[in-house]
Amino acid sequence: MKIIIAKNAGFCFGVQRAIDMINELPDKYPDKKIYLFREIIHNPQEVKRLKEKGMHIIYDLNKIENDSIVVVSTHGITPDEQEILKKRKIILLDTTCPYVKKIHNIAEHLTTNNYDILIIGDKHHLEVRGIIGYCRGRSKVASSFSEIKKMKLGNKIGIIAQTTQNIDNYKKIIFNIIDKLFKTKQIEIRIFNTVCDATYNRQKETMRIARKSDIVIIIGGRNSANTKRLYELSKKIQKNVYLVEKPSEIKKKWFKNKKILGISAGASTPHWIIQDVIKKIKELNV
Ligand code: SF4
Questions:
Q1: Whole domain around residue 20: which residue ranges?
Q2: From the alpha carbon of 196, which atom of ligand 1 is closest?
Q3: Does the beta carbon of 100 lie inside 6 Å of ligand 1?
Q4: Which active-site residues does the annotation give?
Q5: Same domain, yes or no, for 83 and 104?
Q6: Among 84, 109, 124, 204, which is least packed by CB within 10 angstroms?
Q7: Which has the closest alpha carbon to 232: 266, 201, 255?
Q8: What is the pLDDT of residues 191-243, one digit of tens each?
Q9: Is the CB–ligand 1 distance for residue 242 below 6 Å?
Q10: Final residue of a structural domain among 165, 191, 217
Q11: What distance in angstroms lies between residue 208's CA and the mean position of ligand 1's atoms?
Protein backbone atom coordinates (compact mmCIF):
# COMPACT_ATOMS: atom_id res chain seq x y z
CA MET A 1 0.00 0.00 0.00
CA LYS A 2 1.25 3.45 -0.90
CA ILE A 3 1.30 5.85 2.05
CA ILE A 4 1.13 9.63 1.60
CA ILE A 5 1.90 11.64 4.73
CA ALA A 6 0.91 15.31 4.95
CA LYS A 7 4.06 17.47 5.03
CA ASN A 8 2.71 19.52 7.90
CA ALA A 9 1.25 16.65 9.96
CA GLY A 10 1.83 17.05 13.69
CA PHE A 11 2.90 19.91 15.93
CA CYS A 12 2.35 23.38 14.51
CA PHE A 13 4.79 26.20 15.20
CA GLY A 14 2.88 27.36 18.30
CA VAL A 15 2.62 23.94 19.94
CA GLN A 16 6.23 22.99 19.10
CA ARG A 17 7.38 26.28 20.66
CA ALA A 18 5.33 25.59 23.80
CA ILE A 19 6.50 21.98 24.18
CA ASP A 20 10.15 23.03 23.69
CA MET A 21 9.73 25.61 26.46
CA ILE A 22 8.04 23.08 28.77
CA ASN A 23 10.60 20.32 28.10
CA GLU A 24 13.39 22.56 29.42
CA LEU A 25 11.70 23.15 32.77
CA PRO A 26 12.63 20.02 34.79
CA ASP A 27 16.37 20.51 34.10
CA LYS A 28 16.24 24.26 34.57
CA TYR A 29 14.26 24.12 37.84
CA PRO A 30 14.88 20.64 39.33
CA ASP A 31 13.63 21.67 42.80
CA LYS A 32 10.42 23.41 41.77
CA LYS A 33 6.91 22.07 41.38
CA ILE A 34 5.67 22.56 37.82
CA TYR A 35 1.98 23.19 37.19
CA LEU A 36 0.39 23.05 33.75
CA PHE A 37 -2.68 25.29 33.92
CA ARG A 38 -5.53 23.25 32.43
CA GLU A 39 -4.89 20.84 29.61
CA ILE A 40 -1.76 22.28 28.09
CA ILE A 41 -2.28 20.50 24.78
CA HIS A 42 -5.28 18.64 23.38
CA ASN A 43 -3.54 15.31 23.17
CA PRO A 44 -4.03 12.78 26.01
CA GLN A 45 -0.84 10.83 25.21
CA GLU A 46 1.39 13.93 25.26
CA VAL A 47 -0.27 15.14 28.48
CA LYS A 48 0.46 11.71 29.99
CA ARG A 49 4.11 12.02 28.94
CA LEU A 50 4.39 15.41 30.67
CA LYS A 51 2.72 14.06 33.82
CA GLU A 52 5.22 11.20 33.85
CA LYS A 53 7.97 13.84 33.87
CA GLY A 54 6.50 15.00 37.18
CA MET A 55 4.33 17.90 35.98
CA HIS A 56 0.90 18.55 37.49
CA ILE A 57 -2.26 19.59 35.68
CA ILE A 58 -4.18 22.19 37.68
CA TYR A 59 -7.57 23.77 37.02
CA ASP A 60 -7.92 26.01 40.07
CA LEU A 61 -5.37 28.84 40.33
CA ASN A 62 -6.03 29.11 44.09
CA LYS A 63 -4.56 25.65 44.59
CA ILE A 64 -1.14 26.61 43.21
CA GLU A 65 1.68 26.54 45.77
CA ASN A 66 4.07 29.48 46.15
CA ASP A 67 7.56 29.23 44.62
CA SER A 68 6.27 26.94 41.90
CA ILE A 69 6.23 27.29 38.11
CA VAL A 70 2.94 27.80 36.31
CA VAL A 71 2.66 27.16 32.58
CA VAL A 72 -0.09 28.83 30.55
CA SER A 73 -1.04 26.95 27.38
CA THR A 74 -0.89 28.06 23.74
CA HIS A 75 -4.63 28.82 23.98
CA GLY A 76 -3.97 31.74 26.33
CA ILE A 77 -5.90 32.89 29.40
CA THR A 78 -8.14 35.82 30.32
CA PRO A 79 -6.76 39.14 31.64
CA ASP A 80 -8.38 38.36 35.01
CA GLU A 81 -6.48 35.07 35.22
CA GLN A 82 -3.28 36.93 34.24
CA GLU A 83 -3.89 39.34 37.13
CA ILE A 84 -4.36 36.50 39.63
CA LEU A 85 -1.10 34.89 38.51
CA LYS A 86 0.83 38.19 38.59
CA LYS A 87 -0.04 38.60 42.27
CA ARG A 88 1.29 35.15 43.18
CA LYS A 89 4.87 34.36 44.16
CA ILE A 90 5.46 32.04 41.23
CA ILE A 91 7.44 31.82 37.99
CA LEU A 92 5.04 32.22 35.07
CA LEU A 93 5.78 30.56 31.76
CA ASP A 94 3.31 31.94 29.24
CA THR A 95 3.31 29.83 26.07
CA THR A 96 0.30 31.60 24.52
CA CYS A 97 0.74 31.28 20.77
CA PRO A 98 1.69 34.60 19.11
CA TYR A 99 -1.29 34.16 16.74
CA VAL A 100 -3.65 33.97 19.73
CA LYS A 101 -1.88 36.92 21.39
CA LYS A 102 -2.58 38.91 18.21
CA ILE A 103 -6.32 38.21 18.62
CA HIS A 104 -6.14 39.41 22.25
CA ASN A 105 -4.61 42.67 21.01
CA ILE A 106 -7.30 43.09 18.33
CA ALA A 107 -10.04 42.39 20.89
CA GLU A 108 -8.57 44.98 23.28
CA HIS A 109 -8.29 47.55 20.49
CA LEU A 110 -11.89 46.98 19.36
CA THR A 111 -13.23 47.13 22.91
CA THR A 112 -11.39 50.40 23.59
CA ASN A 113 -12.92 51.84 20.43
CA ASN A 114 -16.47 50.82 21.37
CA TYR A 115 -16.98 47.99 18.93
CA ASP A 116 -19.12 44.99 19.75
CA ILE A 117 -17.16 41.88 18.94
CA LEU A 118 -18.46 38.85 17.14
CA ILE A 119 -16.23 35.81 17.63
CA ILE A 120 -16.69 32.99 15.14
CA GLY A 121 -15.73 29.84 17.01
CA ASP A 122 -16.63 27.40 19.75
CA LYS A 123 -17.65 29.25 22.93
CA HIS A 124 -16.47 26.36 25.14
CA HIS A 125 -12.96 26.21 23.65
CA LEU A 126 -10.15 27.49 25.90
CA GLU A 127 -8.85 29.85 23.23
CA VAL A 128 -12.28 31.44 22.78
CA ARG A 129 -12.79 31.71 26.55
CA GLY A 130 -9.50 33.63 26.78
CA ILE A 131 -10.50 35.95 23.91
CA ILE A 132 -13.91 36.61 25.50
CA GLY A 133 -12.02 37.88 28.57
CA TYR A 134 -10.26 40.50 26.45
CA CYS A 135 -13.60 41.71 25.03
CA ARG A 136 -14.68 42.92 28.49
CA GLY A 137 -18.33 41.91 28.16
CA ARG A 138 -18.76 43.19 24.57
CA SER A 139 -18.53 39.87 22.75
CA LYS A 140 -20.93 37.35 21.25
CA VAL A 141 -19.81 33.93 20.03
CA ALA A 142 -21.30 31.97 17.15
CA SER A 143 -20.19 29.01 15.09
CA SER A 144 -22.71 29.38 12.26
CA PHE A 145 -24.74 32.04 10.49
CA SER A 146 -28.01 30.53 11.76
CA GLU A 147 -26.92 31.48 15.30
CA ILE A 148 -25.96 35.00 14.19
CA LYS A 149 -29.34 35.53 12.49
CA LYS A 150 -31.01 35.41 15.92
CA MET A 151 -28.56 37.88 17.49
CA LYS A 152 -29.05 41.57 18.08
CA LEU A 153 -25.90 43.30 16.86
CA GLY A 154 -24.91 46.93 17.33
CA ASN A 155 -23.89 49.49 14.68
CA LYS A 156 -20.15 49.01 15.17
CA ILE A 157 -19.03 45.43 14.94
CA GLY A 158 -15.61 43.80 14.87
CA ILE A 159 -15.49 40.23 13.59
CA ILE A 160 -12.72 37.82 14.55
CA ALA A 161 -12.31 34.04 14.26
CA GLN A 162 -10.90 31.34 16.49
CA THR A 163 -7.51 30.47 14.98
CA THR A 164 -8.56 26.95 14.01
CA GLN A 165 -11.71 27.90 12.10
CA ASN A 166 -12.05 26.73 8.52
CA ILE A 167 -11.33 29.78 6.37
CA ASP A 168 -14.02 28.97 3.76
CA ASN A 169 -16.63 28.62 6.48
CA TYR A 170 -15.48 31.93 8.01
CA LYS A 171 -15.70 33.69 4.64
CA LYS A 172 -19.20 32.28 4.04
CA ILE A 173 -20.39 33.53 7.44
CA ILE A 174 -18.95 37.00 6.76
CA PHE A 175 -20.65 37.24 3.34
CA ASN A 176 -23.96 36.25 4.94
CA ILE A 177 -23.55 38.83 7.74
CA ILE A 178 -22.87 41.58 5.21
CA ASP A 179 -25.81 40.48 3.11
CA LYS A 180 -28.14 40.51 6.10
CA LEU A 181 -26.96 43.67 7.86
CA PHE A 182 -26.28 45.95 4.91
CA LYS A 183 -29.89 45.63 3.84
CA THR A 184 -31.27 46.81 7.10
CA LYS A 185 -29.10 49.43 8.75
CA GLN A 186 -26.27 51.96 8.72
CA ILE A 187 -23.48 49.91 10.08
CA GLU A 188 -19.70 49.75 10.40
CA ILE A 189 -18.04 46.34 10.29
CA ARG A 190 -14.35 45.58 10.80
CA ILE A 191 -13.29 42.11 9.71
CA PHE A 192 -10.06 40.43 10.76
CA ASN A 193 -8.66 37.24 9.30
CA THR A 194 -7.37 35.61 12.46
CA VAL A 195 -7.36 32.03 11.18
CA CYS A 196 -3.74 30.95 11.53
CA ASP A 197 -1.66 29.96 8.49
CA ALA A 198 -0.69 26.65 10.09
CA THR A 199 -4.36 25.68 10.33
CA TYR A 200 -5.18 26.85 6.82
CA ASN A 201 -2.21 25.05 5.21
CA ARG A 202 -2.82 21.85 7.17
CA GLN A 203 -6.49 21.77 6.15
CA LYS A 204 -5.62 22.43 2.49
CA GLU A 205 -2.93 19.73 2.47
CA THR A 206 -5.21 17.22 4.23
CA MET A 207 -7.98 17.78 1.65
CA ARG A 208 -5.46 17.43 -1.18
CA ILE A 209 -4.32 14.09 0.24
CA ALA A 210 -7.91 12.92 0.84
CA ARG A 211 -8.66 13.46 -2.86
CA LYS A 212 -5.72 11.25 -3.87
CA SER A 213 -6.32 8.43 -1.34
CA ASP A 214 -8.90 5.69 -0.91
CA ILE A 215 -8.46 5.64 2.87
CA VAL A 216 -7.47 8.49 5.18
CA ILE A 217 -6.23 8.31 8.77
CA ILE A 218 -6.22 11.46 10.88
CA ILE A 219 -4.07 11.17 14.00
CA GLY A 220 -4.78 13.28 17.05
CA GLY A 221 -6.70 13.82 20.25
CA ARG A 222 -10.47 13.43 20.06
CA ASN A 223 -10.60 16.53 22.28
CA SER A 224 -8.62 18.55 19.72
CA ALA A 225 -10.76 20.97 17.68
CA ASN A 226 -8.31 21.22 14.80
CA THR A 227 -7.91 17.42 14.59
CA LYS A 228 -11.68 16.95 14.48
CA ARG A 229 -11.90 19.57 11.73
CA LEU A 230 -9.36 17.65 9.62
CA TYR A 231 -11.53 14.58 10.05
CA GLU A 232 -14.70 16.44 9.04
CA LEU A 233 -13.08 18.04 5.98
CA SER A 234 -11.67 14.71 4.80
CA LYS A 235 -15.04 13.04 5.36
CA LYS A 236 -16.62 15.53 2.94
CA ILE A 237 -14.24 14.27 0.27
CA GLN A 238 -14.37 10.55 0.91
CA LYS A 239 -16.08 8.07 3.26
CA ASN A 240 -13.14 5.93 4.44
CA VAL A 241 -11.77 8.33 7.04
CA TYR A 242 -10.70 7.30 10.55
CA LEU A 243 -9.59 9.42 13.50
CA VAL A 244 -7.17 7.63 15.81
CA GLU A 245 -5.35 8.73 18.94
CA LYS A 246 -2.91 5.84 19.17
CA PRO A 247 -1.61 2.80 17.21
CA SER A 248 -3.75 0.24 19.08
CA GLU A 249 -6.89 1.73 17.48
CA ILE A 250 -5.80 0.78 13.95
CA LYS A 251 -7.85 -2.08 12.45
CA LYS A 252 -6.60 -4.32 9.65
CA LYS A 253 -10.06 -4.57 8.03
CA TRP A 254 -9.99 -0.83 7.19
CA PHE A 255 -7.34 -1.48 4.53
CA LYS A 256 -9.12 -4.26 2.60
CA ASN A 257 -8.96 -3.51 -1.16
CA LYS A 258 -7.39 -0.11 -0.49
CA LYS A 259 -4.33 1.02 -2.43
CA ILE A 260 -3.46 4.52 -1.26
CA LEU A 261 -3.47 5.62 2.37
CA GLY A 262 -3.37 9.32 3.24
CA ILE A 263 -2.18 10.33 6.70
CA SER A 264 -2.56 13.69 8.39
CA ALA A 265 -2.42 14.79 12.01
CA GLY A 266 -3.65 17.65 14.16
CA ALA A 267 -1.50 20.54 15.36
CA SER A 268 -1.31 19.02 18.84
CA THR A 269 -0.21 15.55 17.72
CA PRO A 270 3.42 14.78 18.62
CA HIS A 271 5.64 13.28 15.92
CA TRP A 272 6.39 10.24 18.06
CA ILE A 273 2.70 9.21 17.94
CA ILE A 274 2.59 9.69 14.15
CA GLN A 275 5.67 7.48 13.82
CA ASP A 276 4.17 4.82 16.13
CA VAL A 277 0.94 4.74 14.07
CA ILE A 278 2.87 4.39 10.78
CA LYS A 279 4.98 1.62 12.32
CA LYS A 280 1.82 -0.23 13.39
CA ILE A 281 0.31 0.05 9.89
CA LYS A 282 3.51 -1.28 8.32
CA GLU A 283 3.53 -4.19 10.78
CA LEU A 284 0.01 -5.16 9.62
CA ASN A 285 1.42 -5.81 6.14
CA VAL A 286 -1.60 -4.33 4.43
S1 SF4 B 1 -2.73 26.10 15.49
FE2 SF4 B 1 -1.95 28.12 14.93
S3 SF4 B 1 -2.73 29.45 16.55
FE4 SF4 B 1 -2.90 27.38 17.32
S5 SF4 B 1 -1.01 27.05 18.42
FE6 SF4 B 1 -0.68 26.32 16.35
S7 SF4 B 1 0.28 28.05 15.27
FE8 SF4 B 1 -0.67 28.82 17.14
A1: 13-97
A2: 2
A3: yes
A4: 127
A5: no
A6: 124
A7: 266
A8: 999 999 898 899 999 999 999 999 999 999 998 988 999 999 999 999 999 99
A9: no
A10: 191
A11: 21
